[in-house]
Amino acid sequence: MEIILKQDVANLGNKDDIIKVKNGYATNFLIPQGIASMATVTAKKIHAENMRQRAHKEAQIRAEAEALAAKLNAANVTLATKVSSKGKIFGSVNNIQVAEALEAQGISVERKNITLPKDTIKEVGEYEVAVKCYKDIKATVKVTVVAESEKKAE
Quick check: 119 pLDDT over 90? Predict the structure, then answer.
């Protein structure tokens, strides 16, 4: 019996796969549990149309993510913080501050998609910060942390 999976099933297939399984497994377990539906001719046509539309939307989202990644790769962020005489920051720089600095430059990124080299930045210097734009599309932003007095002098 052919079925269309509604979710990923270990050792069977991924969501939206059309696969063949034994009749009893499909009618007694997969279909009643809501894991799969029968792959009738009509269901296959609907499934094919949904997959075509999803591929089109995926291509648009991917193009937007690549454009965002190009902007982010070109972006440089300078953050001014209070610093001790030894170059240590009072507190730390985190992904929220990086997201706000990018927003000030007109680039909107969710803070949960920003990954710092460590969990937080605690010293003055230059850092490479990774930003996840989409599933496998990542960008790198150069973040420079300076003392507040240096920022005012510029």
Answer: no
Residues 6+ positions from 98 with CB-CB distance below 8 Å:
77, 79, 111, 114, 116, 129, 141, 143
The token pair that represents 105 in the structure block: 């430059």
pLDDT in tens, 32-59: 999 999 999 999 999 999 999 999 999 9
Which residue bears the tokens 């790769």?
Answer: 73
Q: Averaged over 120-134, what is the pLDDT?
A: 90
Does an H or E element contain 23, and which?
Answer: helix 23-25
Find, among 39, 28, 29, 38, the residue nearest to 9 by Cα. Answer: 29
Matching CATH number, 67-153, of 3.10.430.100, 3.30.420.10, 3.30.70.600, 3.40.50.2000: 3.10.430.100
Integer Cα distance of 145 and 147 in angstroms: 7
